[in-house]
Amino acid sequence: MTADTLSLPIDIQQTTSPRVQDVDFTNLVFGRNISDHMFVAEYRDGQWQQLRIVPYGDLSLSPATAALHYGQAIFEGMKAYKNEDNEVLLFRPHDNWKRFNRSAERMCMPTVPEEVFMNGLTELMRLDAEWVPCAPGCSLYIRPYMFAADAYLGVRPSESYLFVIFTSPVGTYYANPLKVKVETDYIRAAAGGVGAAKCAGNYAASLYPARLAQQAGYDQLIWTDARDHVFVEESGTMNVMFMLDGKLVTPAVSDTILDGITRKSIVEIARHWGISVEERKVSIREVIEALKEGRLQAAFGAGTAVVVSPFSVIAYEGVDYHLPAVEEDSFVTKVKNYLTDLRTGKIADTFGWVLKA
Ligand SMILES: *Cc1c(COP(=O)(O)O)cnc(C)c1O
Fold first, then answer.
1. Pfam families from the entry (predicted)?
2. Residue whose CB lies within 8 A of the most ligand 1 atoms, among 258, 261, 263, for a mutation test
3. CATH number at residue 39
4. What's the CA-to-centroid distance between 238 and ligand 1, angstroms?
């Protein structure tokens, strides 16, 4: 079977042994179950080719595969939801596509045409629609990624690449408010570096400092700027936001801060609700002062995996500062519910963010 109305046709090979009925949709653990199919496209001789959807399974790679040595690898993370009519909804997928290509450019990789990204994605959603959970808080996590595929040991941009999309049904990511530690030794990103790209290496570099924080009893880090450790950057792999003096305050995106789609959606929703928003440099001193003076209503991480994840403790210079509990009528709760209602089609999408797959 071929979706042959496309200029780059997708060859579809459906699985003969679907696994969806074996999944316990009432107890989804992040990243454990992978859906039946995956989309694959190859970049060779300067062109995208051999677009296909095949049963999810192992890739066969040379041990010399460039991505495994020099880290030319990028990814995206997005989610699909079901509305009450059992239709599959995607949230701002074009923004993921655009960001993917910005990451690709920074890592000296070819960009992926909109048609390849979007058609691969929607065909995959069509085939694996049964994998999209409908229970509250659940969704289908979508992982598009690309890596350097040359079997060549010299250091140079690869000439061939694989672009793959696979998906995984997920429940809620972090259940409890997080205890976060302000990191003032290690860094996530420096000016001129790759912090704004969703590249694999950023995650590798964050694991060791995150483990040290976990061993000290914290869930996650707050990264500070690489030069002086004065300004707040991100939290773990989320953007970070504050409700400070009744205003939504968040570090402005830069080449050290990833341009999160959750972050910018929350900024737009807050403005839509008439809340003042400040996107600027935020010093950790300002946050701690406000916390001590009771002017910090909330601090939270924002990202596709978690949506919104409030902090209960911020640790700075050896002191644990406790944040107020998140109330039902707080901004954090309201914006989380609003985003969830938008994504699941419960409320009208006045922003034009939701796309039927
Ligand atoms: C993916 C990511 C985010 C969140 O981006 P979303 O588009 O909201 O998922 C934030 N920070 C980092 C470092 C990320 O990799």
1. Aminotran_4
2. 258
3. 3.30.470.10
4. 5
